[in-house]
Fold each of these.
Amino acid sequence: TGSFSYSTYHTIEEIYSWIDGLLLEYPKLVSRIDIGQSYEGRPIYALKFSTGGNKPAIWIDTGIHSREWITQATGVWTAKKIASSYGVDSSLTDILDNLDIILEIVTNPDGYAYTHSTNRMWRKTRSINAGSTCVGVDPNRNWNAGFGGPGSSSNPCSETYHGAHPHSEPEVYSVVDFILAHGNVKAMLSIHSYSQMLLFPYGYTNDLAPDHEELTELAKQTANALASLHGTQYTYGTTIATIYRADGTATDWAYNNGIKYSYTFELRDTGRYGFILPAEQIIPTAEETWLALMTVMEHVKNHPY
Amino acid sequence: QKTFVGDQVLRAHAKDNAQLDVLRELEAMKHLQVDFWRGPSRPNLPVDIRVPNAVLQQVKVFLESNSIDYSIMIEDVQELLDQEHQDIQSATLRER
């Protein structure tokens, strides 16, 4: 993985090949879990960073919306950072001595492949919708948390189409299945772009989560850590109050299933380039996001529940 | 690859909930094939809309006739995508 360019965007084939290299390079720390298959039959991989034993885990996913290319690129950089920092960086070493990290880089493989082959602006999955010529489901409206509410669409042609039923998408079901089977996931960090926001439950109701105060305080610390590197400012708060009502989201589902530390990141920028963030911003974005991830992971390590 | 020649991303600023509703109406006009990068949510948050070149004037007139302020966030989406593609090609060559 040393000759791989982390400052450019890669195809899914390149990323999967790079994963193979990472496994060879760090065989004692990194393993690949095949958690399922996409609608079009592509493998869905999660990387597990573990020093052994069955530890509580932190789940991180990038690329659930395929056109948000900065997120998959940040996922790749982050995987390398985790692998290369163990035994070198004392904070990360301490985290991995107490927790596993599970990272899914290409959470929507069909969509991501489609952005490279056919339509750079594709957001959804690529499943066929019965009775419609429109393709795909919004994989971040497909979770069983406020599913089907007004913060999503019942129109298959909409970019926020929630799907025929909760977890209809294999890309979503694979994660649900994995997390429930694991049974000891303590944090879910779902990475999106763009807007520079840090969001936490809920998106489907104005009710405050039972852990609202702690989630708010941690979001504040996380945003401060992120800003400390390049000055990038994030806003934070509940999804519904900060951005808009969103039903059926991953982090609401995670929270409702006992994963207290559930955050949605919206990475750079705030609207100069949007989804077409220049590749020269990949590394600065990944670097500052790393500080944010570390803040959450350290908190999870220090606050077992 | 689908191309986006002449498509623009407009940043609309809704002053109030009534203007947000107008933007939601625009979102519902599927025949225009506008793509909301950031949907209408609350008055203080900008709404970013990728507008196909073919309906650009129509959408601008729609916004203006409803007194919704907007600016051009991306002048030509395809230009940015071409630059992105070129950067990827250069990086691939460097890697090799």
Amino acid sequence: MNVFRLTGDLSHLAAIIILLLKIWKSRSCAGISGKSQILFALVFTTRYLDLLTSFISLYNTSMKIIYVGCAYATVYLIYAKFRATYDGNHDTFRVEFLVVPVGGLAFLVNHDFSPLEILWTFSIYLESVAILPQLFMISKTGEAETITTHYLFCLGVYRALYLFNWIWRFYFEGFFDMIAIVAGVVQTILYCDFFYLYITKVLKGKKLSLPA
Amino acid sequence: GTLTEDHDEL
């Protein structure tokens, strides 16, 4: 464990909690892409099946359970409890254009052709593009609530911090996982546009609004 | 690379 990985995990946890609390407290999921949240629930489900097969540490197990639990709770709030506030007209990204290619790639490029490893690879590739429906929805509505931008910032920063974690682990442990690194770079690049808007607008107290 | 069997990252 190193400082980049720990702060990355905490940033990820913060993002998940911020979103869950935002929906729960405001009793509304306006502006939130349910499709992205379904993809994240799928990412955690396929990645954390090893909860059933191997124990790494209490930290590892408890964080995985929290992530999976919050992901499904968020999907439940969006599609069940506060369904009336779900903005389906703007959440129109075709997720099959993500899941199918990612699924195919996971079969072609992986570390080991075993079910658990292919599912883990699928989850790594899927996570790198899972935010696209949410970013697409913001571009369609032309704006995002400030709390939503904080959620996205924490979510984007988490994987950027993991990039530093991988540099650290390569240098000090000789460990590297090319699949996770390449997917992590792609994932972080997809946030760059949002990072620019967040830093130049939201941090200056303005609302995040895109030229619609 | 020196990939650990178990993926120890979240």
Amino acid sequence: QVPQIILEQYYKSG
Amino acid sequence: MLEARLEQAQLLKKVVDAIKDLVQDCNFDCNDSGIALQAMDNSHVALVSMMLKAESFNPFRCDRNIAIGLNLVSLTKVLRAAQNEDILTLKAEDAPDSLNLTFESSDKDRISEYDLKLMDIDQEHLGIPDTDYSATISMPSAEFKRICTDLMAMSESVTIEAGKDGIKFACNGDIGNGSITLRTVQDVENKENNIEIALTEPVSLTFSLKYLVNFCKAQNLSKTVKLHISNEVPLLVEYAMEGGSYLRFYLAPKIGD
């Protein structure tokens, strides 16, 4: 099992 | 107001079909350049970015920014009433509470008209910068689907490795492991069969196959698919359509030990 990253860790909101 | 006429309803049917299992409530953002959509799935791991350019419609009129808040399950119910070859027209007022859809059979003997109630959707928007990816792979969309489906039978994730020798899709599961390596293909007679690999540096990233298999529902939109990969950023899976329109999926990677 490898941890899943979420998109906000790469792209800024707004 | 918005007035957008598609020569064939199947374009919108296929797009909505491809994304409806990933995102449910989303805005169609309309302006004079076309109809755009950006939406993340509930887990914030995958993002859909759709652009239906004005050039894909004939005619296309939209004189100001209009947000059309749609539930895609409801839209699917209405689009089911359209035949693939029907002429489809979308109409909406400037601050709409409904979307008007008409489907006209190509021999013009039947016109169906529907009004779909709209929703007020406050959507989170991510700024995705233009990115120079380390590897760009172009391949038949059917081939990509087969690879993802085959590997999903063995494992929940796939490691995509692009290097000078080709691109390798590898997985490790409880019952064993498997991999598929693709090398460049140049089919002069049928360019849709080409596999092109543009590489500036080797990359290796791991992704959830569940999402990739979901993206492959867009296979009917385009005979080819492009994968853009860099070590530092999410994967971009792109299906290009006529008129400069596109359907893009972004997928955040998994991080190994």
Amino acid sequence: NKPQTSIEEFFPVE
Amino acid sequence: SIKDSVKLCNFNCSQSQGITVQAIDDSRVLLIALKIDAGSFQEFRCDKDLVLGLDLESLSKILKQGNNEEYLTLMAEDSPDNLMAVFEDKKKDRISEFSLKLMDIDSDVLTIDDMETDCTITLPAYEFAKIAKDMKTLSESLKIVVTKDSVKFNAEGQIGTGSVILKPHTDMDKPEESVKIELNSPVALTFGAKYLNDIVKATSLSSTVTIKLTDKSPALFEYKLPSGYLRYYLAPKFDD
């Protein structure tokens, strides 16, 4: 099974 | 719709934006963005921008106290400790009042820029819900493959494999039954079936769901509200 990525890798923290 | 994904959320209230919520699930894979415009409410007044920290399980307990035909008024003071909920049945002259304790919730706010999308799919919300539920019984992952002629949902699991292929079509009598594909470039992405099943809990809110997919980026699943939206951004799974 493929590993799940984290959403924070895509959106910068404000 | 979102209380199984996130437990604590800040509800931001303002006169111009109405109510907005951004929340990330505990596993940091799913981001939820909710917007309920001021125009959604019969009356909306917000003299000062306000953040209401709510425990969604508790909020849901309070909201279940009301009946469908009752009017609901939510009220908070300027620096509130509580959110007041008042249900009124105007025919029966019945009023019930509840107060919900507010919480200080620390949460990172992420910036979501407008994304370029490789493809946009619109399909009936119940159709997507059925696919997500059915495919979860086969596999922990669901692969979505979009070409110009079709969108294919594919699951590969221990007991076997399964796929559902939808082709674009327009239903003149019931536009919400149509399947639309807008494609800039073909895309194939894999998502956790668990998260897709959390997302489809919003099915009753809208007749259609719009899915925006871009290679190596989070997918956007959008349920349009009468005035506003509920959006889910889901990080894809990657090959090692």
